[in-house]
Design brief:
Largest interface: A-B, 59 and 59 residues
Number of domains of chain A: 2
CATH architecture of the largest domain in chain A: 3-Layer(aba) Sandwich
Largest sheet of chain A: 9 strands, mixed
CATH superfamily of the largest domain in chain A: Zn peptidases
CATH topology of the largest domain in chain A: Aminopeptidase
Shape of chain A: elongated
Distance between the termini of chain A: 13 Å
Order of helices and strands of chain A: EEHHEEEHEHHHEHEEEHEEEEHEEHEHEH
Oligomer: homodimer
């Protein structure tokens, strides 16, 4: 077992950091150039910069195209070739020793929320670029080609659905449907692609060896647990329900309490029960009532007709189904006990998306070998990787975002975390793509 | 003690019904002509009749003026004289033996909700007319003059505030402010009065001996208790509060339950607590949360900022104050326990309005002597009588409305209840106004 440090050997700080034992193999752990990656992130944030330190690059806007242009320029400087598909997904390619092999892909997105942050999406794209730059620095060739994807319209802030580009790439959505989606001003994706020069010719979807996406967590778990690396094991299952509660609207001043059928009092008891339900499914079960509306509400009228939404999540489809059954039963029981009518309608069901065991293991092994604090975590938010996972072996690397804050101009991440996440991406990708020089 | 039935002695069914002992006095109990009153109610309902059996006579509309015209014609036929004040309140007067005495007034309103019923307000006006018609039938003169008031814009459906005419009459609102109130189309009360020919010249407010208003209950209490007559002891006190609850908006998919500060879960606990608070103040204490809004709500965002209204009622000012204190304490305690910020702002406070003990006793005695089932009741809704009670000795007579339903085209009342309520009004008014023939 070799176990000694090797200082930076070439380039601008990229280094072969240490030799460590993983399983029974001896592997070289590499590190990216943290300051260079940070500088690229800050430079990209200037494209569409907002007054309060964030970025605004709505999908297929001039700003989005300018961001892609900057990225493309950096990729060409790193010796990569560029291509686009018909839905505007942008790919930068570094040839492999056997360039006929399916590529190992990294990536994420460069579009932002209207008042978005500097890291959501951008981090996964520029971490991929930094991986390539580091391999260039170190003179390392990979067996399989490497690609970096910039997926179109991930945020869903301009066109719906979110993750439109990766949906079209993986076949989750037809190309025609993707191109026909229109923004609030009636402009279609096809028109926007033409207007900003981002349309390619080849149809979306090519065989991939694997897909790795680095991303800020967009939640508080890693920070709260004091971990730098989230080894993402998959996307959780989501069940959206619509609940309508009907009682009897009546005068707040003339109706004695025992004669009331107050829909809101019933809903409050249901919501309290749903909070306790979440506790029974802790820690993985999540329960959110995000919207609640009283029909024809007035200050002095007893609510007679109201609706609320229910968002249930669990990494396990079977457990989520149990959560849904229990939620339905408790809503029915509360309604029954109060003489209310409650109707529960399914709105959307998204099954759990487990990531590929080998790819997840590669991420975990890299974090382990690099000596970075890490934990397994489930992706709570949607990501392009969720689509990719149904298409090819996929994994994600999470790093903390300060305060769990995202979709906000104040979104932030620590430079050290940014660097360590990219280190993990580098070594996991390298393990998958294979070093042409035979070094493990 | 005389205790025998006297059949109808003249007119269309009005009768001196029975002699009964009240206290130590022997009094003649009279009855109105039920079918005639019912026929008048149905005839008035045809003015602005709606497709589903209700009426639409918005204040100072053509329909409202037509209803007043019909009423005025009936009053003239009954030998009464008409006058209007500057805010359009319409008065029909039957002279007293001593016509210099302040009049005993009956009345209510003829305007309706946009899709209003046939009884709300109309009943009090036409019951007053039926009282006069019956006295005419029986040839009975009163010591004091009698008047019937038709108050302007009681409903508040066209102009705000509700009970505008009686507010101006009693000085609760200045004439100028009342005339300046504008409807949704910008038309002022002054303009509407001129347009429909309902403006009078004399300033509102003349001395009254007493005011009696018959009205449907607009709640379910009498029906639920199997009583025909509600002896209204006054109007309850009302406290309106606005509550804001602030937590932390966050992603429904990425935020573990223990790290959430969910404003809606907090509000649900508060509302459950408020429902239990009502039980502690049963049966008189009423608690209603009529409006609840989540700011920037979305199905997959944890509510971070929300508001709800609170309507607290009790017939006793001191008890209402205790309800408010306990509500504030429980809201603060729930917020504290959950790391939420809660702010409670006063919105409106209306003190209790006890009715005049003698007038209330006259109503109760009449119901008692007539042998009608009755109970004391507090007025939960607003009525012109609430303004009048601060101006002169006042009482109200409630009768049941079917299912407690009001402000609805399906509003209904039983003909027998309609007749018995007017019988009570007749005898209470007569006791107050005094029979010129000296019969008690």
């Amino acid at each position: 077992m070799l176990d000694y440090q090797v200082p930076a050997i070439k380039g601008q700080g990229a280094e072969q950091a240490s030799y460590r034992l993983i399983g029974h193999e001896e592997c070289v752990m590499l590190k990216i150039n943290g300051p260079r990656l940070w500088a690229s992130l800050m430079a990209m944030a200037e494209v569409g910069a907002t007054a309060r330190g964030g970025s605004r690059r709505l999908a297929l806007s001039e700003e989005d195209a300018a961001g892609r242009e900057l990225f493309g320029q950096w990729c060409r400087e790193a010796g990569m070739s560029l291509s686009r598909d018909a839905v505007g997904n942008l790919f930068a390619r570094r040839a492999g020793r056997d360039d006929a092999l399916a590529p190992v892909m990294m990536g994420s997105h460069l579009d932002t929320q209207p008042e978005g942050g500097r890291f959501d999406g951008v981090y996964g794209v520029l971490a991929g670029l930094e991986v390539v730059r580091t391999l260039n620095d170190l003179g390392i060739e990979t067996e399989k080609p490497l690609e970096i994807a910039v997926w179109t319209n991930e945020e869903g802030a301009r066109f719906t659905p979110a993750m439109l580009g990766s949906a079209a790439f993986t076949g989750a959505m037809s190309l025609e449907a993707a191109l026909a989606s229109r923004d609030a001003e009636g402009i279609s994706v096809a028109e926007a692609l033409a207007a900003c020069g981002q349309a390619g010719e080849r149809p979306p979807g090519v065989p991939l060896d694997a897909y790795f996406e680095a991303h800020i967590e967009q939640g508080p778990v890693l920070e709260d647990n004091g971990k730098v690396i989230g080894v993402v094991t998959g996307g959780q299952a989501i069940c959206w329900l619509d609940i309508q509660v009907e009682g009897q609207a009546a005068h707040a001043g003339t109706t004695p309490m025992p004669l009331r059928r107050d829909a809101l009092f019933g809903a409050a008891e249901m919501i309290q029960g749903l909070e306790r339900l979440a506790a029974r499914f802790a820690p993985a079960g999540l329960v959110t009532v995000g919207q609640l509306e009283i029909a024809k509400s007035s200050r002095n009228t007893i609510p007679g007709d109201m609706r609320f939404t229910l968002d249930l999540r669990n990494p396990d489809d079977a457990v989520l189904a149990r959560m849904e059954r229990e939620a339905r039963a408790l809503i029915a029981a509360v309604a029954e006990g109060r003489g209310l009518a409650a109707r529960v309608e399914p709105h959307w069901l998204s099954p759990a998306t487990p990531f590929d065991a080998d790819c997840v293991a590669a991420v975990r092994a890299a974090a382990q070998a690099l000596g970075y604090s890490h934990q397994d975590i489930v992706s709570g938010a949607g990501h392009d990787a969720i689509h990719l996972a149904r298409f090819c072996p996929t994994a994600m690397v999470f790093i903390p975002c300060v305060g769990g804050l995202s979709h906000n101009e104040a979104e932030d991440a620590l430079p050290s975390d940014v660097a360590q996440g990219a280190d993990v991406l580098l070594n996991a990708v390298l393990a998958r793509a294979g070093r042409a020089d035979g070094v493990c």
